[in-house]
Predict the 3D structure of the following.
Amino acid sequence: MSSPTIDWHASAAALQPDGRMFIAGQRQASASRETFACVSPIDGRTIAQVARGQAADIDAAVASARAAFDDGRWARKSPAARKKVLLKFADKILAAKEQLALLETLDMGKPVQYSLGVDVPATARCIAWYAEAVDKVYDEIAPTGPNALALITREPMGVIGAVVPWNYPMIMAAWKLGPALAAGNSVVLKPSEKSPLTALRLAELAMEAGLPEGVFNVVPGHGGEAGEALALHMDVDAVGFTGSTRVGRKMLEYAGRSNLKRVYNELGGKSAFIVFPDFDDIARAAKTVAGSMFFNQGESCNAPSRVFVHESIADAFLATVAAEAPKYQPGDPLSGKAEMGALVDDTQLKTVMGYIDAGRTEGAKLLVGGSRVRAETGGYFVEPTVFEGVNNRMRIAREEIFGPVMSVIRFKTEEEAVAMANDSAYGLQASVWSHNINRAHRVARALRAGMVHVNQYDEDDITVPFGGFKQSGNGRDKSLHAFDKYTELKTTWLRIDN
Ligand code: NAD
């Protein structure tokens, strides 16, 4: 994927991102007038000053969202009317694709051809899919007795707080916005302080598409300020959160300390990728794991970071992984050619390098990579890194690294592989590679993960739920099931007299 006609460096030099908040249909400074520097991980340059949203700004955004919800300017429009506006919103996202892709890449470091070819279209498709779905879902009538009619209906919940991370800033926002807006709710979105720019632009595009004022507000700011204020707010009905398990715990506490709002947590992962010797194309399995692990700099919640390989094929598998990994060597994210870009910031760089040190110290063998590169650019780049000889007790096998680091563990039996795969606090995604149909089904059933893949890893579609078991969370983004999160179930009984 490359974009030879666009000079991304020239476009970046000309760009002047607007970092003001978006509340009640308007760009505005924060109440305190404070800002924070938005730093590009590509070169350490400040690309914008962004409004530092705090409790007063969250109050204003929630009040605007509540007013919009209560007067029904969006919630009481027909589903067909909401669909029309949201389809236009999706079109506007596609029409602004180059600007959005550039903002995304400058903000969080991924290669621009992927922002353009993956993130923008996935964002538009998500919004369009929920728009298309909302006038095709029916409510229910319960099979009660002859003297009653019981209606089971879904109503929009009210004001939804969405708190999202920086690894796929637009897509993660769209996974909340699509179902929440289509169902008729108002939304206050708090993007990550590490990647606020595309969320702010999305709000403008939604307004241009005809979304009424106040229905979609964006308050950038720090997690412990704007994020906490939103999750603690007494007038927010539900929080859709995507981020770390550490902050997911806090989200549950905030709900308990405030109004018991619904909390949907989409959290971290340490996904297992299990290769059995009866899978006859070891090279394909190895190429898939490298591609899936190093895509997005390894900053994917579902990255296959724990790879279990049967001892009889481990050497052949590792030889292919070692040949594949260097193809993901980081390069200039604006070149249109780099397979891997920059890690999101200096903190993430230190975290990833800390785990690489831990792997060495704990006795794993470094097979590929392990170093920071391109430091002269001022950016935060780390080589694709593979450890072998890992055991499942090491930190690099237990903790989410969220960077380009793969841990390979050898196993002897199916039971041992399943036991190690399940011996994790996380349960987001897993994959089993086997041509034995009984084994494939048996292992897929035994794996405690929300998403299990057989003989592939990356199949993905908006029609299919995304989410995990255990400490990977309790919510499901995507698919019609996401409507359950942003609607209240109501029963209405009517008496029928003879
Ligand atoms: P994070 O938890 O640090 O931050 C996520 C969001 O929460 C940000 O907007 C942040 O500002 C906010 N936040 C931070 N502290 C807060 C607080 N005390 N109160 C309220 N809000 C707060 O996560 P991150 O580093 O941005 O993202 C990486 C994590 O996201 C990884 O663990 C990754 O696995 C996870 N993730 C999960 C999914 C999924 O669908 N399961 C998808 C993408 C990312």
Remarks:
- The mean pLDDT is 97.
- The longest strand covers residues 148-156.
- Residues 163-167, 172, 190, 192-193, 223-224, 227-228, 231, 242-244, 247, 250, 266-269, 301, 400, 402, 428, 466, 468, 472-473 surround nicotinamide-adenine-dinucleotide (CB under 6 Å).
- The CA atoms of residues 145 and 496 lie 10 Å apart.
